[in-house]
Every structure is written in structure tokens, then in C-alpha cells.
Specification:
With about 120 residues, this protein is mostly beta strands. The chain is about 10% helix and about 50% strand. The chain has one domain: Barwin-like endoglucanases, CATH 2.40.40.20. Strands 2-6-3-5-4-7-1-8-9 form a 9-stranded mixed β-sheet. It starts with a strand and ends in a 5-residue tail after the last strand.
Length: about 120
């Protein structure tokens, strides 16, 4: 049996752009993608802390150290510049993999610069 668990999250990133007239996706600073282990074109879930919107799209690589979090296409209606987001990816694990399972949790500052990577929730 396989079970779905959180693979990685980018916690409380700030939306830097919201572009309706752009092919759908979410552009994310490559440093953040690499830290979280999220690949280009990988499906992601986005949870908007400001308005409660939750939606699915895919990740595209942004410039290193740019701090970019650009919600694009139809999803741009669900996030405005300045909104705080949680970006998550999930994976399917078998019972053996679950025994060694650890998520990758990435935390940023107010400019979307990586400050911490861990495997347990910071309180």
C-alpha cells in the first residue's frame, strides 16, 4: 500500500507578482526550489494565508536569489502581491519508505530569502 505524505513545503513565502496574462504556473526562486527538492514542472499545492484560497498548479524555475514568487495565469486570481503563501508538494510512499520518511520544510524571511531548512515544524 502507498500513502501520500507531505514531501516539501515553502512556508510563508510572499507573493511578488500576480500575472493573469501569463501561461499558468508559479515561478519560484531556484534557490528555494532546490532547497525544497521541488522540480521544474512538478505539481504543487498553494495555500494562501491571507484569503484562504487553495489551488493546484506547477512550479517553474525563477532566477537564483531573486526572491520571486509569481502566481500566473488563472491562479493569479487567487493571490495578490504581498499575500503570504504556503507552497507544498506531496509524494506517494510505500510502507518501507514511510519508516525513514522526513519532509523538507523551508522557511524564508520577508524577502523570500531562505533562512532555515528542517524536517520538523518550527513553532
Amino acid at each position: 500500500m502507498h500513502r501520500i505524505f507531505l514531501k516539501a513545503k515553502l512556508h510563508r513565502v510572499t507573493t511578488t507578482a500576480s500575472e493573469v496574462d501569463y501561461e499558468g504556473s508559479c515561478e519560484i526562486d531556484s534557490i528555494l526550489l532546490d532547497a525544497a527538492g521541488i522540480g521544474a514542472f512538478e505539481q504543487i499545492q498553494i495555500y494562501n494565508i491571507n484569503n484562504g484560497n487553495r489551488f493546484t498548479t506547477y512550479a517553474i524555475r525563477g532566477k537564483d536569489n531573486s526572491g520571486v514568487i509569481s502566481v500566473n495565469g488563472a491562479a493569479a486570481h487567487k493571490a495578490q502581491v504581498g499575500d503570504l503563501l504556503i507552497i507544498a508538494s506531496y509524494a506517494s510512499y510505500n510502507e518501507i519508505e514511510i519508516k525513514n520518511y522526513m519532509p523538507t520544510l523551508c522557511y524564508v524571511d520577508d524577502k523570500n530569502i531562505l533562512t532555515k531548512v528542517g524536517a520538523s515544524i518550527s513553532l
